[in-house]
Every structure is written in C-alpha cells, then in structure tokens.
Amino acid sequence: VVQGNSLVKCLIWDLDNTLWKGTLAEGDDVRLADEIRQVVVEMDRRGVLQSVVSRNDHDRAWAVLEGMGVADYLVAPRIGWGRKSDAVRAIVDELGFAEDAFAFIDDQPFERAEVAHHLSRVRCYPAEQAAVLTELPEFSPPVSTVDAGRRRVMYQARARREADRAAYQGPDEEFLASLGMELDIVRAGDDDLARVEELTLRTSQMNATGVHYPQDALRDLSTDPAHDVLVVSLTDKFGSHGAVGVVLLERLPGAWRVKLLATSCRVVAYGVGTVILRWLVDGALRAGVHLIADFRATERNRMMDVAYRFAGFRDGECACTPPPDPGGVRQLHLVPTPQPPVTTMRIAAPDLAAAPR
Ligand SMILES: [Zn+2]
Questions:
Q1: Which percentage of the chain shows pLDDT scores above 70?
Q2: CA of 319 relative to ligand 1 center, distance in Å
Q3: How far is the CA of 198 from the centre of ligand 1 (A)?
Q4: How far apart are the CA of 71 and the centre of ligand 1, in A?
Q5: How far does the centroid of ligand 1 lie from the alpha carbon of residue 340, in Å?
Q6: I want to staple 258 with a disulfide (CB 3.0 to 4.6 A). Which of 102, 164, 231, 293 is the partner?
Q7: What would the mean pLDDT of 197-202 be, rounded to a whole number?
C-alpha cells in the first residue's frame, strides 16, 4: 500500500537568483538558464503545479516572465513586498492542498527559514537544487497521465471560474447551476485505469480509506462481475475538470459495498462527493439493497467522514454487513431512502440497479 502523501503537488519558485539569474530590482539583465526552463516544463508535464513568491514589482516581474515564455506555466502567483510566509500561505489557501504538498525554493536562507518557521510542513529547498529537483522522489509521481499534463490548464480555468463566482451576486446553488456542470460516471475501461490509480494517489483528503489500488488490482476488479470500478469526470462551461472521482463498488447479497470513494479536492466546492453519494443511494433504493461504506480514518480524510454522515451513513449492525476487515476499516451503513433531486448538475451514468453486466 503506497500513500500519496509524500508527493509535492505545487512547487513555489522565488525569482531573483532562483528561477532566473540576477536581481531585477537592482537593474540586472535577468536571464533564465536552459536547465531551469527544462525543470519548469518537466514539472508541468508531470502535473506538478508551479507558482511564484517574489519580492518585486508585480507588473514588471510578470512582464519579464512573459518575455521568457514561462508565465503560462504559473498559477496563483504572489509577487509583492510582503512577508514570503504570508504569500506562501495565500497560495496554500487558494489551491487547497495540505501544507506538506507544497515545496518552496529560494536562494536566501533567511527567506527559507521565515517560511519554514510559519509553515513548518512546507518543504524548502535552496536554489542550488533547482536543476536537480526533477530527480527527487517527491517530485516524481509514479503515474503520469494525460490529465497530469493538463492539470495546470485546469487550474487556470478554475481561476477564471472563481473570478466569475466572485462577480456573481445570487445564492450559491444558483451559481453552481449556472456553470452548466455535467457529471459523467462510466465503468472504467483499460484506458481509464491509470487515471483511476492516479486519483487514489492524489486524493488523500477525500479518500475514504486512504488505500491505494495499483492498476493491476483495478484491472482485475474491473472485469470481476461482483465489482464495479467507476470513474467520474466533470465538465462545465469553462471546460473539462478531467477525471475527478473514483468509486469501487462490490455487490454483496442484499447490499452494495462502497470499498473506495475518492474525489479530487479540486471539486469539493462543487459538491461532487454529495452528488455521487446521492446517485448511489438512489440506485441502491431501486435495486432494493442496503449500502455499506468502508471507512478508515486517516490524518487527512475527515472531510470524507463528514460527507458520509451528511448522506445518512451510520455505524451500526445489520445482517447485510460482512465481518469487519482487519486493519481498522469501519463499515458505515445506510438503508436507502428517496433522495432530493440534484439541481446543480446533469448526471450521465450507467444504471447500476439494472442486471449486472
Ligand atoms: Zn443492511
């Protein structure tokens, strides 16, 4: 079992004498070394987001980044004259990953210490390491998929979406409905398994068991008539979010058992977890079975516990529930009842209540 917690999801660059050589505010003709440009491009290809924290005049520094052709690789930049720890904190809050999923690289020991003092779990690197970051395991996700290469583009779409949201005055439900969201749930085929595996690695906050299923295990389950491996993707008027969720369902006599439910933290605000759970409850109701959900508390996944409880899952004994697994997995239980209609998105999904494949 591999946990995804050790991977860096966002690398935050200092500019002067880190990303580029020279100090812009002192009038240097700053330049970007080829080896650093290659790191930027490779991190992007791997799906590691990149941002900037720098003491500089914002407009001037950004124009230089654009001239170097690297501005498009950066999300949530913070360029200004305040404390770097405040700037890093703002990026952590904006992207919504756990603190230890961020890395900060800076040539000044003082700046690294200042960030480390206030954000002890952010990983700090000296500028001398910039050219070799891609060789470090924490920057080397084991799976690299089409979605990984597009992650940054999806974050940039999100920033536009959030600017739209900030401008919107109506109630939240209405705003969500105005996005034209479509949730697509499909049985995972061979092509989807890499994305499913990657999601189980990258979704530690929203993973109900913290278990990582390797591709081979997923392939076996996807062809097993007693299991459904489902991959969930989301599209809205701004574009595709890519694959945002995975459900692993086992069909038992009298019950469906959700062995894994993981959704991307990128889509928490859109209520995707709740919508998936309502869809499952509705299917179970029509199939005349109870629902069981495996849950194992990790340091990070309290939000999933909340989502299950909000949907009505409870601890408790029922004849449908198999004996507990060793390893601390709890089984939550629900007797399905009619669900309120989902008004925020359209759902396209297979009918699980129909006869198994
Ligand atoms: Zn039951």
A1: 93
A2: 6
A3: 32
A4: 54
A5: 21
A6: 293
A7: 78
- Give me the DSSP letters along 160-188: HHHHHHHH--S-HHHHHHHTTEEEEEEE-
d(CA 250, CA 320): 13
Displacement of CA 314 from its chain's centroid (Å) = 26
Q: What number of CA atoms fall less than 13 Å from residue 120's CA on the CB side?
A: 0
Span from the CA of 175 to the centroid of ligand 1 (angstroms): 37
Q: 17-48: string of b/e by CB count within 10 Å (b at 16+)?
A: ebbbeeebeeeeebebeeebbebbeebbebbb
* Residue positions counted in the chain: 357
Which amino acid belongs to residue 97?
Answer: F
Torsion, CA 268, CA 272, CA 141, CA 239, rounded to 10: -100
pTM, rounded to two decimals: 0.62
Per-residue pLDDT tens over the stretch 135-155: 999 999 877 666 776 788 888
The span from the CA of 231 to the CA of 263, in Å, is: 10
**CA nearest to 250, candidates 280, 216, 211:** 280
CA of 332 to the centre of ligand 1 (A): 10
Relative orientation angle of helices 302-311 and 272-287, to the nearest 10 degrees: 40
- In sequence order, what DSSP letters do the residues of 336-354 get, joined into one string? --PPPPP-SEEEE---TTS
Query: Sheet holding 10-13: strands in order across?
Result: 78-80, 49-55, 10-13, 102-106, 123-126
Q: pLDDT tens-digit profile of 299-352?
A: 777 778 888 888 899 987 788 988 777 677 888 999 999 988 888 999 999 999
- How many A from CA of 290 to the centre of ligand 1? 5
pLDDT band at 2 (very low <50, low <70, confident <90, very high): very low
Q: Measured in angstroms, how far is the CA atom of residue 335 from the centroid of ligand 1?
A: 6
The residues placing their C-beta within 5 Å of ligand 1, an ion, are 290, 318, 320
Quote the ligand 1 centre to 184 CA distance (angstroms). 28
